[in-house]
Amino acid sequence: MDNKVKIYSIPTCPYCIRAKQFLKENNIPFEDVDVSENQEAAQEMIDKSGQMGVPVLDINGEIVTGFDKDRISQLLGL
Questions:
Q1: Which of 9, 13, 38, 70 is most buried per CB count within 10 Å?
Q2: Taking each helix axis from N to C terminus, what angle separates 14-25 and 69-76, rounded to the nearest 10 degrees?
Q3: What's the CA gap between 49 and 62, in Å, rounded?
């Protein structure tokens, strides 16, 4: 099954960097959306997650706020 993963992040956020590194280590392709550059994407992230903190991961339509490794692994079937 192909996972559809989108991560809303900002370049300076250590948890965003760790989350992306974790996805790369597990060979999970993802779309990285820089919400510091893209106001529309930032609003989309807030609409989905109800908060402004990053990272927010959209994994097959399930929203994970923060770098919650266990939840991310569970949703990706790792």
A1: 9
A2: 30
A3: 10
